[in-house]
Amino acid sequence: MLKDYVRLIGVLSLLLWAIFQRSARAITSVGIEPVIGYERVQLLAPTPHTKDRLVYGARATYGFSFLSAEAEYLHSNSSENFPLEGLSTKDTAEKIKAGLRSGIDLLGLLNFYGRLGCQASRNRHEETEAGVTVSTYEPIRYHPYAGAGLRVRLGRNLRATGDVTTVFHDFPNMNQNEYQATAGFVVQFP
Known about the structure:
1 helix
């Protein structure tokens, strides 16, 4: 009798495993999206002030619609001139994010999602004053991030996306945060 139960449990387990494997292939997806957006950053030279700059890069996701892994690379360049002080500055930033995303699909047309993870960033700052350029390379810094977004289905594998993400530099002091608003298109397989 015990052998029959063990066999039944074994057969049912294999059957459930096969069903899950088939359905998991159907609902897992890979998403690749170019990212173009604006970023508000705080610069320190010559006085503390904020500046908007264009960022570009790519984001990839893999997993289920309700939970997936994400990775993102962003690059940005900005420059400022202060003619009265005879000073010009140039910043080049690179950022890599790795985290999780969780979403809710509505009728297969809309997907609302939240995201969180960690961002590694590196910045090169150049100041040119009286023809002399001084470059400063900041060490790599790690900060948590959280955000929310929306994907709208445009076709079988194409979606428009937009999101807002906050990178926390000095929690709970919210004055030092980075706010990134991005828009783009996602090519999703399958």
